[in-house]
Amino acid sequence: MADRRNLPGLPRLLRQALLGSALVAACTVSDRTGPNTDITNLVITPSSVALATSQSVQLRAKGQTTSGGTRDVQVSWSATGGTIDASGLYTADTTVGDFDITATLDSPHLTAAAKVHVRGSLRQLVLVPAQATVGTDAEVQFAAYGLTANGDSVDVSPAFTATGGTVTAGGLYTAPHTGGSDQVIATAVVGKNGQTVADTSAITITVPVASVAVTPSSASIAVNATVQLTATPKDAGGNPLTGRIVTWATGNGGIATVDGSGVVTGVAAGTATITATSEGQSGTSAITVTAGTTGGDVVFVGAGDISDCGNNNDEATAQLLDNIAGTVYTLGDNAYSSGTATEFSQCYDPTWGRHKARTRPAPGNHDYSTSGAAPYYAYFGSNAGPSGLGYYSFDLGDWHIVSLNSEVSMSVGSAQETWLRADLAASTKQCTLAYWHKPRFSSGTDHGSLSAAQPLWQALYDHHAEIVLGGHEHNYERFAPQTPTGIADPANGIREFVVGTGGESHYNDLGTPLPNSEVFNGTTFGVLELTLGAGTYSWQFVPVAGQSFTDSGSGTCH
């Protein structure tokens, strides 16, 4: 402090000013001698934090010193939401949102801020991925996080379980050895009341393709002629797999070409290998192309009364088709018992369905058990002719083929009978074959002969048709050529085959054989293979494996 005795000559006002200045200097020096003299900045740790409602966190204020270090300091605390005590213990209340925490140091006067985010309570568990498609024995890593009521995502520690495969505590899922569907489930317990939240992921397990079977495995066609090949991907156990992508290729495009659906066309005389590939596995068919043009013998093969999910007989007859080239026909009652979409997809499609691309069907009464036979028309598409009619025609080699519908009117003057006569009149082919479900003639006692079909038979007889095929009776029967009224007529009559042997069941119901009935069998499943040539035909009934009945013969066109 200034000594007044050294200022005797100064004016009074100047002496007072100097004295005041000395007093101020004395206070500043006094402050610098306090405990916080070396503090230059104030910080809060942690500087930001996320809490659940009612959760607490301990905050601390530290001063940064001139020497570059830090140390705890005594501060006062305030918060814009929640509460904070003198020690810095912050407690969130039930209000969610973002809040500011302030620490204030009095001397020197410094402040610091921290952020608190208060989230809502956990309301939902989210498992990722939400769904997955994997092969057998494959692995998928799953993870889970929580969502709060206000949309915040938070870490959780869930428990994982699986309904089929296995899953580790860390969420690594391993698929089982067989195909099908599975689920992974994540579960977490949250909240003071132990609330359980969970989420589920759906898993589709696909069986890998182990082999591809191509049918027929070999075929001979003329130049410009075609043959339909069918590829069937199979698993390691030899079971057919559906829904797999198949690509086609030819080893010699100069001999034969193949399109995306497996239709092979002869280009020049020689041999070509056609390859079908699915998921890296392949199968082949050897195609021999002979010199000449279209025409020559063609194969027309099939049966009626086919698929029932209650047995595997249709698979046995489908395996016969696997080894027979040509066009496939069906004689109605394709999918039992009501021709529903489910029955077509689950009963028919896994067996005869693998030949759908080369199939020309006819409808039956069981197909019409579902209104309008809508699933039948939807399943076969354009191969069944105009949707809803059930009758159509096409040429096959040197033959004119007519598929008719015994489930709609067949009477004289009906739309179908009128169409049939016009269609036959327009045909330029010498040989004609027709087929439908309910036979005009049958020696079976379960259904027997259908006189209502006589107008169709009459139209065919008038135009010199050779063959009529039918089903409905679950047996096999062959008739000699006869008139529409059942009188033998070897010169102009029509030969009828009843082939209700596709696999649904046996009737074995022979009554008194009708006139002109030549062969009857009620105990054998199988298909009738017709070879149609220029002015000729031959037939062979092919039984399923393990059965021995057969029938064969030949004839000529009118």
What does this molecule look like?
The protein is mainly β and 558 residues long. It contains 6 helices and 42 strands. The strands form 11 sheets. The chain has a 7-stranded mixed β-sheet, with no helix packed on it. Helix 5 (415-426) packs parallel to helix 6. The chain is elongated. The chain starts with 11 loop residues before the first helix and ends with a strand.
Helix content: 10-25%
Largest sheet: 7 strands, mixed
Q: In angstroms, what separates the terminal alpha carbons? A: 146 Å
Anisotropy-based shape: elongated
Give average pLDDT, whole number: 89
Share in β-strands: 35-45%
Low-confidence stretches: 1-32
Helix-and-strand structural type: mainly beta
Number of strands: 42
